[in-house]
Amino acid sequence: FFGCFICIDAFRTNDEIGLFGNVTYKLSERLILEAGLRWYDFKITGKNENVIDLFNQFTFDPEFRLDENGIIPTANISYHVSDQTMVFARVAKGFRPGGLASLRIQDRVACAADLQALGIDPNAISNPLDSDSLWNYEGGIKSTLFDKRLTINAIGFYIDWKDRPESILLGCGDTARINAGEARNIGFDMDFQALLTDDFVLTGGLGYVDAEFQTAEAGTGISVGDTLFDVPEWSYNIAGEYSFRAFDHLPGFFRIAWRYIDDRQTITPGVVLDGFGVLNLRLGLDIKDWRLAVFAENATDENGLTSSGTSFGVLRSDSLIRPRTVGVNIQRSF
After folding, report:
1. Backbone φ and ψ of 180, nearest 5°
2. Any residues with CB less than 8 A from the CB of 294 and at least 6 apart, and which?
3. What does the alpha-carbon distance between residue 257 and residue 282 come to, in Å, rounded to a whole number?
4. DSSP 3-state assignment of 179?
5. Greater model confidence, 115 or 173
6. Which of 6, 122, 156, 318 is the most exposed place for a label (fewest CB within 10 A)?
7. Angle CA(265)–CA(268)–CA(269) in degrees, nearest 5?
8. CA separation (Å) from 98 to 14, 51, 112, 132, 170?
9. Nearest to residue 70, comparing CAs of 49, 102, 97?
10. Which residues have C-beta within 8 Å of that of residue 215, sequence separation ≥ 6?
11. What is the pTM (predicted TM-score) of this model?
């Protein structure tokens, strides 16, 4: 009985039927049009039973039922500028089915007003979530140059997101997961691979996203224009791998990789997680069917925070990246 603070037996049944098709049409030798449709029909039922809540004697959970169907379209047009370069544009719709989000509330009396402002019964042990949906618009270029020694990809995107699920910090200190309204993302991604010499390969990537809420739902504390939670504005990575021969005949490699994640806004107003970088090193040899490698992950022992919040309204809950890890990896190919 005392093994947990809140114990829930959760039951969920998913029934889904889907049909999809895709058509490709060559408008010319270089211009290609693709279009697709997916029809779906799903039913989700769920209920939390046998509830033991040490904080509150009286809890209940109504049965959850979600029944949806619809059509998801996608379209893509691409133009081969040359044998080495292609430009494209794409539009697609997507969605994620809703469900039940557990409400682990320490003091339901203190949180009653906050929950009611969100349309949630203060005595419920979970909160139904509607399906979210988005439209994604993107365009980009893919290019292979210098006899395939350099590959460059770049893409820009705009995402219009409705009914986005978010964990919201309540005034009482606890959290609740709800459909937080509309949001939009604008950004780009770039990556490259360069064979600088026959023995050295350099790869890298750069990403930028401006993600903000477009609506302000009552009781959430969110304002129009606020940054989406846990979304870094900038991120990048770069890695180099050098191949060599050890003892005149054994293939070997040395790889060094660095990645960086920018600052991120948390669900707690005014609390921003600092950006951090991670350095990984790996040195290996191939011996017939075997690969032996020594590695150091997070070699500088960075204390990067990946998330931060509260548990039951009173306990600080932080997630850190794995500390410096040094080891040996042995693989065999069959």
Report:
1. -95, 15
2. 282, 283, 284, 326, 327, 328, 329
3. 9
4. strand
5. 115
6. 318
7. 80
8. 11, 22, 24, 7, 22
9. 97
10. 181, 182, 224
11. 0.83
